Amino acid sequence: MAALNFNAAEVEPQQSFDALPPGRYEVIISESEMKDTKAGTGQYLQLTFDVIGGQHNGRKLWSRLNLVNPNATAVGIAERELSAICHCVGIITPADSEELHDRPLIVDVMQELNPMSGQQTNRIKGYSQANGAPADKAKPAAPAGFAAGKVPAAAPWAARK
Q1: Sign of the torsion formed by the C-alpha atoms of 79, 31, 103 and 140
Q2: How far apart are CA 55 and CA 23, in angstroms?
Q3: pTM of the predicted structure, to 2 decimals
Q4: Nearest residue to 99 (alpha-carbon basis) of 151, 32, 149
Q5: What are the CA-CA distances from residue 20 to residues 27, 62, 123 (Å)?
Q6: Could you read off the pLDDT of 48-99 as tens digits, one per residue?
Q7: Of the residues 53, 71, 115, 128, which has the fewest C-beta atoms closer than 10 A?
Q8: Are 119 and 93 in contact (CB under 8 A)?
């Protein structure tokens, strides 16, 4: 037996760690850190997103951007994803990842099976501007498609060469 001096009414219960349902969520980046890859041959930017509002308020999502990697394709994918994030939050030329923190954006989330654990996990598949997102005054004109608040996927003809 252990004596407890605890009032559960004063502490929010722990949330489920199940994957979020697929959908669109308003988020902010709350943490960012460059980390070495497991193989030690590169580095990735790990971004932590906090859901703001709605029934999943406070839940977290993560994304890893392979910005330093011997695989040029992996770097290109990461750079395009980072560009989408930058455009959505209105910071086009960040000198530090912390400049992206605390600015709302919308993420499109899907679920996928984690082969290691056998459990569903989340993956961010796209980014959009949040309504009322702050705009960087020095921001150049956005490419076609950004005006509607949607970050376009790669042009369909780009893969046809």
Answers
A1: negative
A2: 13
A3: 0.73
A4: 32
A5: 13, 12, 10
A6: 999 999 999 999 999 999 999 999 999 999 999 999 999 999 999 999 999 9
A7: 115
A8: no
Helix (H, G, I), strand (E, B) or coil at 82: helix
Look at residues 69, 103, 74, 68 and name the one whose alpha carbon lies nearest to residue 88. Answer: 103
Q: Give 156's pLDDT tier (boundaries 50, 70, 90).
A: very low
Three-point CA angle 54, 24, 87, nearest 5° = 115
Distance of CA 156 to the CA centre of its chain: 24
Mean pLDDT of the chain: 85
Cα(125)–Cα(68) distance, integer angstroms: 21
State in Å, rounded, how far the first CA of the chain is from the last one: 72
And the tokens for 22? 């697929």
Q: Identity (one letter) of the amino acid at 77? A: I
Looking at residue 5, its pLDDT comes to 85
Q: What angle do CA 32, 38, 42 make, to 5 degrees?
A: 70
